[in-house]
C-alpha cells in the first residue's frame, strides 16, 4: 500500500511540472511554466495511474543510495515507479561515493526472418519503456542497500550531459552531503549544455527526509533545475 501511495503522489508531481509533451516537430522547445509557489498538504486527490502521463517523454532518475538513506531508500525507490502512457522512457542512475547507470532492458529483435540482423537491436542502451518494463526497473533498484558515502556531483553532472531534449531529471535524496559540490556540478553542466547549443533540461528535486527541514543544498539544486521541490509527499515550492 505504501508503494502504491508513492506512485500516485509522483503522478501528481508530474502534473505540476509542465505541459503535455511537445510533438516531434518541437521537441527541442520547452513550454514556459507559470505555476504559483504553494504547499499542498495531504490528502491529495487520487489520480488513476492508467490515466496519467508525464509532461516529458523521458525521465532520468538520479537516486541516492548512500548510508544516510537507510530509512528512506524503500520510499525513494518507489518514487521511480511511475505508471505512464506508452512511449515513456526512463533511465536510472544511482550514487553513493560513485555513480552507476543502469544498463536498461534488452529489446526484442524486430527483424523478420528474411532480414539481416547483426543483433544490435538486442543491445542495452540504458533506457527502458514504462510501464512495459516496470518490473525490471524496480527489480534492479530493489537490489541496492543503503551504504557508503555520498558524492552526488558526478551523478548529476552525468545526468545533465546525457539527457536528450525533452527530458526531466528527478533527483531523489535526503540532501545529507556537501551541498556546494552538487550545486556547482549542476550549474556548470547547465552552462555546458548552453555552450553546446543543446536545449535545457529541467530537474525536479525530491527530498526524502520527513523529520527535518529540507537541506539547503536541495533547495539550491531545485532552483537551478527549475522544476520544483518536493519534501517526501508535500509540494514545497516551484517550479521556477
Structural description of this entry:
This protein is α/β, with parallel strands linked by helices and 240 residues long. The chain has a domain at 65-103 and 124-240: von Willebrand factor, type A domain (Rossmann fold), CATH 3.40.50.410. The chain is built from 6 helices and 8 strands. The protein has helices spanning 2-17, 73-79, 134-142, 153-162, 179-195, 216-225; strands spanning 58-64, 88-95, 99-101, 128-130, 167-173, 202-207, 226-231, 234-237. Strands 1, 2, 3, 4, 5, 6, 7 and 8 form an 8-stranded mixed β-sheet that branches. 42% of the residues are buried. The model is unreliable at 18-54 (pLDDT under 50).
Secondary structure elements and pairings:
Blueprint: H1 2-17, E1 58-64, H2 73-79, E2 88-95, E3 99-101, E4 128-130, H3 134-142, H4 153-162, E5 167-173, H5 179-195, E6 202-207, H6 216-225, E7 226-231, E8 234-237
Parallel strand pairs: 1-2, 1-5, 5-6, 6-7
Antiparallel strand pairs: 2-3, 2-4, 7-8
In a nutshell, what does this entry contain?
This protein is an alpha/beta fold and 240 residues long.
> What's the total helix number?
6
Structural class call reads alpha/beta
SSE pattern, N- to C-terminal? HEHEEEHHEHEHEE
Radius of gyration: 18 Å
Query: Beta-strand level of the residues, as a percent range?
Result: 15-25%
Unreliable sequence segments: 18-54
Reading off the top of the CATH hierarchy, the class of one domain is best stated as Alpha Beta
